[in-house]
Amino acid sequence: MKLICFECKSDYSDKSFQYQCHCGGLFQVVHDFKAVDSEKLRRMFAERLSQRMSMHASGVWRYKELIYPELPEAFVTTKYEGNTGLYASESLQAYTGVRQVWLKAQSENPSGSFKDNGMTVAVSHARSLGKQKLACSSTGNTSSSLAMYAALAGCKAYVYVPERQVSENKIKQTLAYGAEIIRIAGTYDDGIRFLEQNYEELGLYVCNSINPWRIEGQKSMIYEAAQSLNWKIPDWIIVPGGALSNAVSLGKGLNDLYMLGFIDHLPKVAVVQAEGASPFHRMIEGNHPTLIPELQPQTIASAMNIGNLPSWRKAQAMLSQTKGVTVSVTDEEILAAKQLIDRSGIGCEPASAATVAGLRKLTASLIIDPDETALCVLTGHILKDFASFLDYDN
Ligand SMILES: N[C@@H](CCOP(=O)(O)O)C(=O)O
């Protein structure tokens, strides 16, 4: 296992842990799967499904051999995350126009969002380094997840949260787990920039998705979905695009599964952004060489209120590898999709509903064929962000 710069490929495995290479690139964990016996692993992963209250009962650590094989078990901080539901819904099939649609409810994680899959690994890595002060910039889901795992690990969480346009439910949840909250007069992007510049001086271990261990944990989402479907992957996987950790970790997980022969082809991936915060979509659609940040991102889906996405290069590479696409949807389309997801009994926060809205739009424009199958990732729980729901219904 190595820590390699995604841009210039410098090897930082033996250096002290950091988030950016001298060239400005982010890091990536690179595994050597050559010696892996895929058949044996598949059997092991199946056997572990019946485990309870052991590390392998976690829907992340079940796949430890593919995520962080070297980590001693004593450092693993787990709340048996993952193990989230995969639902089929006839009403959503009719709404999106495809033959079969599954919803992967990452919202069923212990802190109520997909961040837990990655956070359990980042916090475990932090413990292995002896770190006590953990930090993040957040619109509320990352902060709730970090606060929960930091409390479990006996560490202190410091979270940088925008003063405006965040769900106060998420902030209260973060506070309740005992984190220290620093409200900033800016966006998530300003918080990340601050942490990148000051983490060393402040002695902070950063748990955002610029941390490659977050990505290693989050890739387990697609392992789990594929295992639930007996390793038959749908034609399309649809993820929301905020800071892009979903897109990046999905690409890495799919690549692992394909390299190991668990799946026989790579599915196509669609990244859905909200129109008011869609710099990545605009870059891909306009065939621009670099991302032009959105200085004032604005969407009702508060988890996607992000304008300067640190991981855009990794997400761009994932899209070209999977022959994927991007699409943007309006706040109205997001809320209409959310209402249907909620009334199907599954429920989600607005950012999650962007996936279903995006799938509908891509099918209507014939980019996705009605005869294809799709899996939409629901990222956050229905109770996370209620303001927009009330606005919509009144
Ligand atoms: N919407 C996110 C933004 C943080 O993204 P991260 O993946 O870099 O932690 C949040 O919940 O804060």
Give the C-alpha Rg.
19 Å
Question: Structural class of the helices, strands and pairings?
Answer: alpha/beta
Q: Would you tell me the overall average pLDDT?
A: 96
According to DSSP, the number of beta strands is 12
Largest sheet: 6 strands, mixed
Listing every helix as H and every strand as E from the N terminus to the C terminus, the arrangement reads: EEHHEHEHEHEHEHEHHEHEHHEHHEH
Which compounds are bound in this model? the ligand N[C@@H](CCOP(=O)(O)O)C(=O)O
Shape: globular
| Largest beta sheet: strand ordering | 3-4-12-9-10-11
Percent range for helical residues?
A: 25-40%
Unreliable residue runs: none
> Helical element count?
15
Pfam family, one: PALP
Family: Belongs to the threonine synthase family.
EC number: 4.2.3.1
Protein name: Threonine synthase
Pick out its properties.
single chain; 394 residues; alpha/beta; Rossmann fold; four-stranded parallel beta sheet; 15 helices; 12 strands; globular; binds the ligand N[C@@H](CCOP(=O)(O)O)C(=O)O
